[in-house]
Write a structure and sequence with these properties.
This protein is mostly helical. 80% of the residues lie in helices and 0% in strands.
């Protein structure tokens, strides 16, 4: 799931960076942090989280 979001989100962030004249590094790092936080916070974001959620 994380890889899919990264693949879809990267071109969107690059487009937003060029339109807004913002550094692409800033937006790509923000995307990476958002994907990581979403993975940790969601039971289905990571297979290990799903196993923990099912065993609780």
């Amino acid at each position: 799931m994380n890889d899919t979001i990264a693949i879809i989100g990267t071109p969107i962030m690059l487009m937003l960076a060029s339109r807004s004249k913002i550094s692409p590094k800033l937006l790509l790092l923000t995307l990476a942090f958002a994907i990581t936080i979403g993975s940790v916070a969601s039971p289905i974001g990571n297979p290990q989280n799903l196993l923990i959620a099912l065993n609780m």
